[in-house]
Each structure stands twice: as structure tokens, then as C-alpha cells.
Here is the input.
Amino acid sequence: MTRVPFVAGNWKMNHTATAAGQWCDALRERLAAAPLPDGLELGVAPAFPALPRVAAEIAAGLPLTLIAQNAHRELSGAFTGAVSVPMLLDVGCRRVILGHSERREIFGETDALIARKLRTAVENGLPPILCIGETEPEREAGRTEVVLEQQLQRGLAEARAEQLDELVVAYEPVWAIGTGRHATPEQVSAAHAFVRATLAGILPPEQAARLRILYGGSVQPGNAEPLARLEEVDGFLVGGASLEAASFEEIARATARAKGLEGA
Ligand code: PEP
Here is the structure.
């Protein structure tokens, strides 16, 4: 089963539009000096004000998928400060991150709200990256699989299987996000296998086998390659290390090498 490896950067609330332009300049220069092999998808999720700046770079040939960090559950209306799926599509977004642990923890997003947002996204042609992951106490209590299964079941509850062909799942143990402590290859391998088996219980198994499962949590140029060598790891969702074009590109290159892409 060939799944295109995907390395996506999540800038969170970092980088103005100006800084985003500089990041794109740096990435373009690095790719011109040493092109990445074909068969690898790169994506970046800027804050909303920087989306048009990065969209312009993509239109000019920078090989990135534009990703939104969040979207509202409704398509329009009286929701001051919110941004809708049609607005994101219009500015060039081709994916949206939903269920990030920071949205769950800091902004109180529930599985029910995430499911509603996910339905709105897939019904309107914006495929999600659904983030799931256990906290440290949940792992220590032996509840990792229960949590992952619940977040998947509940997060996908409002969508139909035929709307989920482009779904990407990001396994992001909360204790590994922004902490410098990435999960071990054994932990990642076990969690990804469990996520795929769970997906195969929710969706037709051949569809589940085609979906990409990314790992996220303190991925750096120095730890990406052994993690990307794992069969069930289809790439990464990268926070801190995506803020610099150089480290983002090094992670992408390490992924291409680990996946044996020609020319890597
Ligand atoms: C994230 O926020 O999705 C993430 C994985 O962050 P970091 O890489 O900084 O741990």
C-alpha cells in the first residue's frame, strides 16, 4: 500500500505575514539548491493573517499544501472572530487541522464540537487533519488506546465514509508536544498500528489502509529519520521545528530518505 509521505508544519500563533514571506523565501532557496524528491507532500499551517502571503508563494510555484489551523463549525453568521471553511477555501487552503490538543485544552473544544467541524469541513471540500492523542496521566493509567479510540470514534461520528477519502490522522501524544520529549519508536509504532486498526473498524478496511497517519510531538531533524522509517508512520505534523524553513526542510529530507524516495 503506497501512501504519499506528508510533512506538515503547524506554526500556531507565530509568524506575521512578513515573517511567513521570509520563511517561504528561505525554503525556496533551499529547494533550489537541493531539490526534494518527488513523491513527498509538504504542507504548512500559518496563522490566518499569513494565509494569503503563503498562498501567493504557492501560486508562484512553492510546493506546499496550504493548511488552516482551525475552522468554525458553521459556514457563515454572527460568530465574531471566527473563520469559516468557505473563507479558508477561498484564500487557498486545501486542508484544515481539527482537534489539535491546544484547541481541546486551551479553548475547551470537545469531541462533539470537533465532529461537527469535521462534518462541515468534509461536506464542503476541505479535508481535515484530525489530531488525537493521550495526556501523560492517561498514558500512565494505561488508557492510551481507550482515549485514541474514543477521539477517533467521536471525532468521525458525523461524517460518512465516502467523505473521508482524504482524511489524515495525526497521532500527537500531548505529553510530547512542545516538550522536547518525543515518543519512542516503539510507542509510535504501537499507537499508529492501533489507530489504523481502529480506523479499519470505522471505515471499510481498504479505505482505512489508504489513509495517512502522521506522528506529531517534538519532531526535530535529529529524530525524524528513525520515526519515519516505521511502516505505519506516513509523515509528521511538526510544531516548533517548522518555524525555521531550514529545520522544516531537513525533516522533510529525512522523511524522504527514510521512505526510500528516489533521489533522497
Ligand atoms: C504540534 O503542535 O502539533 C506539535 C507537534 O508541536 P511540536 O512539534 O512543537 O511538539
Residues 10, 172, 177-178, 216-219, 237-241 surround phosphoenolpyruvate (CB under 6 Å). Residues 185-202 form the longest helix (18 residues). Residues 132 and 171 are 5 Å apart (CA to CA). The chain has one domain: 6-258.
